[in-house]
Amino acid sequence: MAKPMEEIRWQDLEIGAVVSEPGCSREYKTGSWRSMRPVVDKDQCIRCGVCWLYCPDAAIDRSEEGHFQADLDYCKGCGICARECPVGCITMVIEEG
Amino acid sequence: MAKERRGIEISLAIAEAVGQADCDVIAAYPITPQTHIVEHLSEMVADGHLDAEFVPVESEHSAMSVCCGAAAVGARTFTSTSSQGLALMAEIFFIASAMRLPVVMALANRSLSAPLSIWNDHTDTMMVRDGGWIHVFVENGQEAYDHVFWAFRVAEDPAVRLPVAINIDGFILTHVIEPIEFEDNELIKRYIPEYRMEKPLHPDNPVSMGCFAMPEMYTEAQMAREKALVGSYATCIKGWEEWAALTGRRYHPIETYRAEDAEYCIVTMGSLGETAMAAVDELREEGEKVGVIKIRLWRPFPFEDFYRAADGKDALVVLDRAISFGGPGGPVALEVRSAMYRRPHAPVVVNYVAGLASRDVRVEDFKAIILGGKAKAAAGDTAGFTLYGVRE
User: Fold this and answer.
1) Closest CA relative to residue B225, chosen from B331, B165, B299, B305
2) pLDDT tens digit sequence for B183-198
3) Of A10, B228, B380, B391, which is most buried by a Cβ count within 10 Å?
């Protein structure tokens, strides 16, 4: 978004509050909501992709080596990946600070 | 080409008008007393008389959702509903106006349940009064036919881009056969040329519609809606002026009958205005200096027009066809009281609610309401409302 939200006047909105740059929710980093962070033990990970399937925010990416890791810009720390991982390789760790 | 005057059921005339308007998408679910409108439209499409997409949805919620989608890609879009159907549609009803999608709806006004009633009053439309649509009320079949074109004219104007509800009293209008003057298609094309939406939803130019807004943006989005609806007034007038130039039939946001020299007036909205005029004729014979003020444009409320009609009157007797339960009166009376508050020499406002679920309001009932209202105004008995004819 070109302007910070606080500076946008009603006159600046597109008709019907249409967003003319689609996909701009990418700029909204929901990772700041997180209180728990998923940490993957790569030695245990079998690269099955169950966490990737279950992530409700599509915030898990696959690394070049085939491991799955949360994108911490968007991961809200819900812990579904840790709960669903069939080998239990994901631990939820409290975010400090 | 000479104008064609046909005896036709008003619902069918509305459907014919939608066809003449060359509507692209119709999505509706049948509900009494709206049924004949969409039934006839589905026939017109099935028989190849109207080149439109008729979407026979599974509910009114879906009907309005389809309409939003269709309007978003720039299709000329129509739907129709009543009562419970409108209630089921309510969620998307508000979204259509917020997203500025110019859907046109024939709203065949009917009571809301419970008790279950298929008959006519204004309780359904009052439920969505604050839904951000343009609301117009018609009094007869000709007005219903004419306002289908007017609604598309106004809704699709780039300066407006808002949905329009044409309020048509259920049964009293929808199921009545009336002689209606049909306009030819050439005239209609001149009045509402092919619709070209600016920036429709299209893969070549992707946009996001109906997005989430943080508290930092919601207030501004609501202000934009308010400005759009208030601003639509000018186009409403323009639409009527253009229609008058083409057809000779002239409409105004507030219409009056024998009101100019009247000391007091009955205020109505919808088809009962015609009965009110007959009652006023009789009362004038009896020496009463009374007139009728009829609200045609309900949203945006035409304050200045209303002042011109009502300023200087001693009293206004407002007839409502819905109750605002636990509130100070019917919705129209609330509007009139607010509008007139602190006007110089503001008339005393008395409120009657009548004609719920099509209970007859005959000429003699109007006379009783008008004279009763006059007496109440004189006695200063102006609080709340009177539910006319209730047995107690």
Assistant:
1) B299
2) 999 999 999 999 999 9
3) B228
